[in-house]
Amino acid sequence: MRRVVDQVLRIGATDAPVLVSGEHGTGKTLVARALHTASGRKGPLVTVDCSATTPERLAADLFDDGDGLGDAFRRAADGTLFLADLTAMPMPLQARLLRALEDGTDRSGPSARLVAATHRDPHEAMREGTLRDDLYHLLAALPLPALRDRDEDVAVLAHLFVDKLNAHYGRSKRLAAGSESGLLRHDWPGNVRELRSAVQRAYLLQEGDELYVRPSLPSETVLKESETSIMFSVGTTLAELERRALLKTLAHFNNDKTATARALGISVRTVHNQLARLAGQDAGRKAAP
Q: With the C-alpha atoms ordered 183, 272, 234, 229, is the resulting torsion angle positive or negative?
């Protein structure tokens, strides 16, 4: 983690366009925010997801007629434009982006600093024709290692997530003694996102101030989620779907059970009953040899 932080601080202080790469859940969006903060720019951080819109709408957002810059660049003026999932951008648009960045080196181009991200290996993407070689070589590469390749960060991140939840809820919970060894036995296929979800689940469900954090899914099942959505693998049980939907909605509404019940179309009593059932399952697993 120290190496990534050092790179973010060094690159963030420059105007260089950046490509952040890493598996799903490695923290690419967090790094983009950190780069924006480290840049000291006064403008906003504007996010455009290249995979969440049609090529026509993406082109209209990024570019005016001809090669002029579009509304996304103007919204991010004096700030940072974050292009999520760059390899989903069609190659003709990547060529226009390349020209815009090259114009920027002559100070006639965008005032927004560009940060892009991809969950693909950039070299593999170039071989498969989903990332232009010349665009890649214009970007400062910032690869993020998978969590399984940096065991020393697992406990550090778990403590950090607990501290953030304590600050948010005004509590003083902590990881239970010896729980760090259990965290290291899991390979965290969902990376930082999966670890954060597991910590949050333990924090919301377990009574007392000592937390026993366990993976919410078996290692072979990869869960992908953002702040407002969840993607499940085919074959996930209905019980797991209901559990994740409840916990995700509860977290979204800052543990407000009334708002959670309203959003899910169930009663507040059902929310309390489901949480009690899940807490009982956790207690049973904790007591098991």
A: negative
